[in-house]
Amino acid sequence: MTPQQQLADTFVALAGSSTEGSLDVPQTLAVLVGRSPSLLGVSAASVVYDPGSGEAPQANGSDPDVTRLEREALSWHEGPGHGPHRTDAHLAAPTSLDSPAARQRWPRYTPGALALGHTHVAALPLRVPSRTLGALVLFSGQEDVPAPADLALGRSLADFTAVTLQRAREAEDGRALAGQLERALTSRVIIEQAKGVIATRRSLTMEGAFEALRSYARSHRRLLHDVAREVVDGTADPTLTDPSD
């Protein structure tokens, strides 16, 4: 496979990493870090993805040792892919890990990366217009520090992945909202049907029927929708639906 074919195949894999129509986020991250070393000529790669909205960040690596390092770094809030440092512009260029600045900034992360044989690291943010979702981290030794062209390609991979993840999240949010609206509409229809039943059987206005339904639900500490469903199904408490003597 030529480099061009390999690159095209990677973009297709990133775009198609879905299961039953929903994006498989772990699979997307695995594709990104799994393909990056050979495409970009680096020793290893990792990715940190922070979906926001209170969800826990995710981390993955191109090999088990890097995966373990990045997942430990999540709790340390260290490394170029974590915390505020992942947006530092200078980290997009290879940074020496064997330097006083790196050891001071990342006192646990730096020794861990050096122990794995990596001497340089670069972080390429996963950016969307509204925020930064994480970073693609490239590890290299003295002999395979990525060239500017490789970093430019890495930025393209990071940008494409970020957009893919964001659009999948927006689509998922849209489906969730549609489901909520559908349930709300269904609930409203059932309540209106129940009001009609009560109004007819007890000779009440629709407003009076609704007040009777709501009062019953409150006094019995039950959901209005559940009580309305019983009225429509004919299984409600007769004191609610039958005329008073």
Brief write-up:
By secondary structure, the protein is an alpha+beta fold.
Task: List its traits.
2 domains; two-stranded antiparallel ribbon; 5-stranded antiparallel beta sheet; Arc Repressor Mutant, subunit A; 245 residues; single chain; alpha+beta; elongated; Beta-Lactamase
> Which percent bin holds the helix content?
55-70%
Which runs of at least 5 residues are low in confidence (pLDDT < 50)?
none
Mean pLDDT: 85
The CATH superfamily title of the largest domain? GAF domain
Which outline best applies? elongated
User: What is the CATH topology classification name of the largest domain?
Assistant: Beta-Lactamase
- Using the coordinates above, name the CATH class of the largest domain: Alpha Beta
Please state how the strands of the largest beta sheet are arranged side by side: 4-3-7-6-5
User: What is the count of helical runs?
Assistant: 9
Biggest sheet, open or closed, and with what strands and sense? 5 strands, antiparallel
The share of residues in extended strands comes to: 5-15%
What is the CA-atom radius of gyration, in angstroms? 28 Å
Number of domains: 2
CATH architecture of the largest domain: 2-Layer Sandwich
Structural class: alpha+beta
Q: What is the H/E string?
A: HEEHEEHEHHEEHHHH
Total strand segments: 7
Question: How far from one another are the termini?
Answer: 86 Å
